[in-house]
Amino acid sequence: MASQCFSSSSSVFPTPSSSSHTKVEEKWIGSFPLKRRPVHLRLYSSARAALNADPKPVEIPRKWYNLIADLPVKPPPPLNPRTLQPVKPEDLSPLFPDELIKQETTGERFIDIPDEVVDVYKLWRPTPLIRAKRLEKLLDTPARIYYKYEGVSPAGSHKPNSAVPQVWYNAKAGVKNVVTETGAGQWGSSLAFACSLFGLGCEVWQVRASYNQKPYRRLMMQTWGAKVHPSPSSITEAGKKILEMDPTSPGSLGIAISEAVEVAAMNADTKYCLGSVLNHVLLHQTVIGEECLKQMEAIGEMPDVIIGCTGGGSNFAGLSFPFIREMLSGKINPVIRAVEPAACPSLTKGVYAYDFGDTAGLTPLMKMHTLGHDFVPDPIHAGGLRYHGMAPLLSHVYELGFMEAIAIPQTECFQGAIQFARTEGLIPAPEPTHAIAATIREALKCKETGEAKVILTAMCGHGHFDLPAYEKYLQGDMVDLSFSKEKIEASLANIPQVVA
């Protein structure tokens, strides 16, 4: 698949300038400020480089990038909930094979991608970087909008970037079956796809609200050989307890994680796979950003603003972490903006604290932005963003001030999705509609100011199996769901009290 960017404009690469100034707070560690909320200034000259009419396609990355190696302050470790001591590799061995545990805890800057994984990546990678010229025209903006399109994978999203290596490492370790949770179904279908390639059994607990809303995602998983259960289910003790308290529970990713982890812990031939949140998942997703850097270099552009949706954080981290590396080295200075649903705003409304990654409290304690592991979001259509917490590493990056976050209600997101679909032709999944809505906001701001910013956004998947959500919007039946202050306060009250 061609990887060149479809573009008609270019600029010189950004270079550090001794005359550029950034307002920051006064608390610094080394050469980096903590809680930095900078006023980002354009760092490159107004001169334009000639566009190579036929830029060479980029190659598939051969290494994953580990941002931890370059951070001025290392992230807090996960804790064993019984001892409150840092988790040891043996604590994770019931859930993950050794190689993934090593990747979860490594401080190495780059990790080699196995040849067998690259061979599967070749089915869809490198993915295209596309300039949204028709959307720019509709918005009448001087901004140049680019999107990295991950919907060309067999599962239709970015999720196979991690599903394939996770399953390969499990198969190499002799594991027979893997279990997981899924919200919208993109992760579940990606894991089912990977298992079909490497001959592993696959069992998926899908959040009940999405299980009912998205039957074709379930059918994709079943087509690739997976067993799929609505969560909460009566199969596990964790699911039974939830159903006893609320027989009509719409479920949550936290509940589904509890069910999958319970099954993995009780069966010696079964391991658990997670589609977001953990370090090794974010690591695998950096193939997105590594490709994108080279694609933008090939056309003489670098982003002023990078925008992505966030639920657990894998898609956003995958795109942004390689750019943050370049930012930390002083080569670029983009605004990096996470966008989450107003109904599940873990970054913008949650607290930064140690909490469980699942509802039943079966996982290690992770320091992250959280709404509380008991929080059950309203059943918005972006099922993949309905998670109570944010990836610990992404939360840490947010705390260091290297990114910012906003929350947008779903009706504005779908309004932006319709504009995108009717200009660019692609129907986005409900999750990236949040990034699209924020991109449109930024582009319209450029229209007001006259700034010709370069905006890069993550179009992490297509919405071909999410059309019931579009039907709701087009019929005028979609409403903005939020949360009550009391609901969050009650959930936050149950967060473990850990002095860190």
From TrEMBL:
Pathway: Amino-acid biosynthesis; L-tryptophan biosynthesis; L-tryptophan from chorismate: step 5/5
A Gene Ontology molecular function term of the record: L-serine hydro-lyase (adding indole, L-tryptophan-forming) activity
Swiss-Prot/TrEMBL catalytic activity: (1S,2R)-1-C-(indol-3-yl)glycerol 3-phosphate + L-serine = D-glyceraldehyde 3-phosphate + L-tryptophan + H2O
PROSITE patterns xref list: TRP_SYNTHASE_BETA (PS00168)
EC numbers: 4.2.1.20
Region (Disordered): 1-20
KW Magnesium (keyword) present: no
UniProt cross-references to InterPro entries, sorted A to Z: Trp_synth_b-like (IPR006316), Trp_synth_b_CS (IPR006653), Trp_synth_beta (IPR006654), Trp_synth_beta/beta-like (IPR023026), TrpB-like_PALP (IPR001926), TrpB-like_PALP_sf (IPR036052)
SUPFAM superfamilies given in the database record: Tryptophan synthase beta subunit-like PLP-dependent enzymes
Domain Tryptophan synthase beta chain-like PALP: 123-461
Cofactors demanded by this protein: pyridoxal 5'-phosphate
Keyword field: Amino-acid biosynthesis, Aromatic amino acid biosynthesis, Lyase, Pyridoxal phosphate, Tryptophan biosynthesis
Family indicated by similarity: Belongs to the TrpB family.
Its biological purpose: The beta subunit is responsible for the synthesis of L-tryptophan from indole and L-serine.
Subunit structure: Tetramer of two alpha and two beta chains.
Protein name: tryptophan synthase
Taxonomy of the source species: Eukaryota, Viridiplantae, Streptophyta, Embryophyta, Tracheophyta
